[in-house]
């Protein structure tokens, strides 16, 4: 067997064989995982990633991430916003530490959740927040609907967040970042079966694991070439071998996001 299979892929071996015979890259993720702290990765600052926002409760306790795409619009995950109201959340920019008090706090005047969002494994995990006041930070560009090639297996992506540094661990006080390669859709399908919906999701991670987003990173960015290309959505555990992280495939929702930004 020449291809390493994801751990949960034993029953999908036949499908993988088909993919392999079609010349589908199975992973593109066999390169070494340099220990980076997220899980794996290194600490960073809000100045280094000025468009990365904390999404907090009204007491400014961070529970998700988001990406500033215009001074008053933040892209995040739908699952972060379920049960929230415009009065229950805040967006905090320019704050490196979860326990910090600096930066800019904005109230939210509108929460748009993809109208067909049901659960993370059904896809459409995207939301757009409208801020009541403008953030004085550099915004991020995001991929357009036609740029579907950006996710080619093995492409280096950057993940950024305040999430836990191990599965079941505690959140990082300081913002962290790491790089992970995209996987092929076939590889992700092998890991997750029918829970992976290729039209709405893209996976990233090393075959050997070790580097991943984790709880609390949700809603935050997956950057490709410095642009927002994915949203931290879900995964089984964190950083496990053969089990990549799953991100919202933003090209699919780019036009909808633009509509929200212009509304
Ligand atoms: N659902 C998690 C959150 O709400 C993100 C999990 C990402 N998991 C992963 N293995 N990449 O923060």
TrEMBL record:
Gene3D superfamilies: Trypsin-like serine proteases
CDD domains xrefs: Tryp_SPc (cd00190)
Signal peptide extent: 1-33
Pfam families registered for this protein in UniProt: Trypsin
Top-level taxon: Bacteria
Peptidase S1 domain sequence ranges: 38-262
Annotated TM spans: none
GO molecular function: peptidase activity
GO terms classed as biological process: proteolysis
InterPro entries assigned: Peptidase_S1 (IPR050430), Peptidase_S1_PA (IPR009003), Peptidase_S1_PA_chymotrypsin (IPR043504), Peptidase_S1A (IPR001314), Trypsin_dom (IPR001254), TRYPSIN_HIS (IPR018114), TRYPSIN_SER (IPR033116)
Protein name as catalogued: Serine protease
